[in-house]
Amino acid sequence: MAKKETAEKTVRVRLVKGLRGVQSRHRLSVKALGLNKTNDVRELKDSPQVRGLINTVYYLVRVEE
């Protein structure tokens, strides 16, 4: 069998700042990404929805592709 040519791309997202003093909408975006504490890392499927959440909280997270 041949390998799948359309391998799903993933994005590693790390929470680098705390959520104290952050807008409640942005806290919900961080929670939707699956990040709870500072330095938490999640590997997520690279999709427009995930990219939109990352763009919302760009100042709190670091993207490691």
UniProtKB/TrEMBL annotation:
Entry-linked Pfam families: Ribosomal_L30
Residues of the signal peptide: none
Keyword DNA repair: no
Keywords: Ribonucleoprotein, Ribosomal protein
Residue ranges constituting the Large ribosomal subunit protein uL30-like ferredoxin-like fold domain according to the UniProt record: 11-61
Coiled-coil ranges (or none): none
CC terms in the record's Gene Ontology section: ribosome
Taxonomy, superkingdom: Bacteria
Xref: HAMAP family: Ribosomal_uL30_B (MF_01371_B)
Family indicated by similarity: Belongs to the universal ribosomal protein uL30 family.
Subunit text: Part of the 50S ribosomal subunit.
Protein name from the UniProt record: Large ribosomal subunit protein uL30
Organism of provenance: Dyella lutea
Gene coding for it: rpmD
